[in-house]
Amino acid sequence: MTPSMVFTQNGGTLSLREIPQHAPDRFAQALFSALSGGWRVVSYFGVQADDGVRLYCLLSFKSHATIGVMSTLVTGKSFYSLTDEAPQLHLFEREIAEQFSLSLEGHPWPKPVRFAPALGSLPGVTPHRPPTIGIMDFYRVEGDEVHEVAVGPVHAGIIEPGHFRFQCFGEEVMHLEVSLGYQHRGVERMMQGRPGERMRKLAETMAGDTTIGHGTAYAMIVEALTSTAPPARAQAVRGIALELERLANHTGDLGAISGDVGYLPTASFCGRIRGDFLNMTAGICGSRFGRDLVVPGGVAFDLSADGASQLADRIRTARDEVTNAIDLLWDTPSVLARLEGTGVVSEQTALELGLVGPAARASGLNRDIRRDHPFGIYSMSQIPVETGKTGDVYARTMVRWLEMEKSLDFIEEQLAQLPGGATRRAVGEVSAECLAVALTEGWRGEVCHVALTDARGAFSRYKVTDPSFHNWSGLAMALRGGQISDFPLCNKSFNLSYCGVDL
Amino acid sequence: MIKAVLARIKQGHRTMAYPKKPLPLPERFRGYPELKGSLCPADCRLCADACPVGAIGCDKGLSVDLGKCLFCAECSAACPHGAISYSGDHSLAANRREDLVIREGEERRLARALDKKMLSIFGRSLKFRSVVAGGCGACEADSNVLSTIGWDLGRFGLQFVASPRHADALWVTGPVTENMREALLLTYQAIPAPKLVIACGACAINGGPFIGSSEVHDGVDGLIPVDLYIPGCPPHPLTILDGLLRLLDRLE
Ligand code: SF4
Ligand code: SF4
């Protein structure tokens, strides 16, 4: 009997031929037994094949830093959903159905994800035309005093578009349905072909506030496929940039959470300090979002000795100011009272839904790619993982703050001991007929890129999973039984990406 | 309370002096390009081939389309003759799409002020309704920044508002995905006339990194008329503010 999975590591490659191909029932069995043995799904997607649609599933086993891969072939017009037994698959399956014009049997929630044209279909079958965005049956609760609140796609502030339907009983939210797709740009379709500058720019703009997180994952894919090891100095600069990205976003969100409970001092201080972190990134590469810093083979900008010591000074000042601003929160009982017990996601729910990043850690799940599947500088230098217990807005706020402290420590440590040498190596030819996988821990959580190459070394499929893809249903669960007026607060504590999902 | 007061003293007054005093930008900031087409050998297309979005023209002399440009500087890295470099000049916004295509030796065509009548209507108070029509979220982040204390957009009478009915202008970011086209047009219609349209970022101007995707419209041109184009991916907040202040005749 073929083994159920073939194994690789973060930043590793496999020959497509090595990947076990199972019949659908054996695939389901192998998947369930992996999940019950402590594996979890990092990616699950379809690929157009000559004889049908091939499904690939990538799983992570954290204590061995191992990634397992297996596949199956769908030859009929439908495939059977495994969501009932494995809820973490629910959105992946909907996506596969939509992208490959398949129907999904037995799924509790078989709805469009992006209202997007199909990427492919079974041989000889015309791909589905996409449904009109927003037109579908929303989940409805009927009864006296039950009412529905619909919000979006255009929201009140300068925010990405999405549509939310709340089923409410008075103030109480019984259910929130999140419907996205408005930002859909066709990124995965455009990521087919030869790797190059265009692909790198697309990777950086999959979710612009995670330019370093996605940019690094893309670079790791190309490095894996060309067997390039970036120099140590480049790895350190990437790590600094990734932590600066985390600091900027966490600071902005803690400020926004504070603003949403009407506590303005922290809100306005953090609004400014976030900019200081962005400007530190711009000090390294000219762009506040870290555009064009990470390139396959290393980084495009070096940090001079002067630059490093200036950055260290700026970090020291920022640490002082941001600590001062955030301490006000922990000292203000009325703020804490609004955060505690609001928007609870239990550990069980987080586990079943497969949440990642600070949202998962705040619910007690101890997962972080920087430690579990270390990449780049994190294989040399560890960052402690922070978790919470209560799964509420308070825990998500606290975990973010604790992570900020660790990021500040990490950056100071890296700046004090920057390795010497080059910052970039040339990349060679891309291997043909391979699968490469790269995971990074962006500020929202796990960023996963998977690439399949064809016989000429071009991407035949490039699959991206932004952390938001795992986490949007966590936000919906956080609202259950809560007050509709808590929505903005819950929303800020997750701060999920719309474009990262819509791709 | 006392802690909040102490924190206020510690954090200090932080609104920048710009436009009275210049704002220093990082050394590696990439702004207005400098072209030296005279250095280009005949038939050299190295820069154009390196550009991921086709922003460079080599045919009738060297040109850069700032409406498409992502300011990645791949073109200047690819050019062995030093014909393209990116300066630290943040002023980039223009009123007309064609003014964004720059060529060596041509006069700079930066955004001009609105006419007298429009200035009398909008010169002291201009409210924007933002529609995010795709993109990556970075243009939005740097538009939002303008409302923080450091930039304090309100001191110029500029503000982002929650309803198109309260707005004088539409603020577009993103390449206009097919899935946002209708919402964008409906929001535009809901703004009372006279109204302005601002296209912020490479996406909104011409599709940005997503140019050519079958699922986007390559920007707002052709869908609604635009009064101010602000280049960049994303534009630096200073580039945005510079464009707005030029439009309102607030920069000498
Ligand atoms: S800087 Fe602009 S013109 Fe030059 S390669 Fe990049 S996108 Fe093209
Ligand atoms: S122009 Fe660039 S920064 Fe702005 S939304 Fe588009 S991709 Fe993002």
UniProtKB/TrEMBL annotation, chain B:
Pfam families the UniProt entry points to: Fer4, Oxidored_q6
SUPFAM superfamilies, sorted: 4Fe-4S ferredoxins, HydA/Nqo6-like
Protein name per UniProt: Hydrogenase
All residue ranges annotated as the 4Fe-4S ferredoxin-type domain in the record: 31-56, 60-89
GO terms, molecular function: 4 iron, 4 sulfur cluster binding; metal ion binding
Keywords recorded for this protein, A-Z: 4Fe-4S, Iron, Iron-sulfur, Metal-binding
Residue ranges that the Swiss-Prot or TrEMBL entry lists as coiled coil: none
Cofactor or coenzyme needed: [4Fe-4S] cluster
PROSITE patterns per record: 4FE4S_FER_1, 4FE4S_FER_2
Lineage: Bacteria, Pseudomonadati, Thermodesulfobacteriota, Desulfuromonadia, Geobacterales
Entry-linked InterPro entries: 4Fe4S_Fe-S-bd, 4Fe4S_Fe_S_CS, Complex_I_20kDa-like, NADH_UbQ_OxRdtase-like_20kDa
Organism: Geomonas terrae
